[in-house]
Write a structure and sequence with these properties.
By secondary structure, this protein is an all-alpha fold. It has three helices and no strands. It has a domain at 5-43 and 54-74. It has helices at 5-10, 22-33, 57-74. Helix 2 runs parallel beside helix 3 (57-74). The longest helix is centred in the last third of the chain and has 18 residues, at 57-74.
C-alpha cells in the first residue's frame, strides 16, 4: 500500500496503535475512514531462503483481535489529525 502525502498529513499518526504487519491494516483503515480512495499496488514477495519467519503468535493475535478492536474504537474515535491551518483547497 502506498500513501500520498495528503493522506499521511490527514491521519493523526499518534492514534495508530498497531505494530508489525497489522500497522498496514490500521493505516489503510484510517485512510478509508477519512474518506480517501484506496488502491493497492501489487508487490511480489520472494520466499525466504535464509533465517526464520518474523511471524509470531502475538503478531497473528494483533492482526485478528486488533481488527475487531479497531472497528469498535472507530465508532467513538477519529483518525483525523487536528489542524490549525486549512489544507490546499481551503478546507480544514
Amino acid at each position: 500500500m502506498c500513501f500520498r502525502r495528503r493522506v499521511l498529513e490527514a491521519i493523526d499518526l499518534d492514534k495508530i496503535k498497531f505494530i508489525g504487519y497489522a500497522f498496514q491494516i490500521e493505516m489503510k483503515f484510517a485512510a478509508w475512514r477519512l474518506g480517501f480512495a484506496l488502491r493497492e499496488v501489487p508487490i511480489t514477495f520472494i520466499d525466504r531462503e535464509y533465517g526464520e519467519s518474523k511471524m509470531s503468535t502475538s503478531i497473528f493475535k494483533e492482526a485478528v483481535l486488533g481488527v475487531l478492536k479497531m472497528k469498535w474504537h472507530s465508532f467513538f474515535n477519529s483518525y483525523r489529525r487536528l489542524s490549525s491551518t486549512p489544507n490546499n483547497n481551503g478546507s480544514w
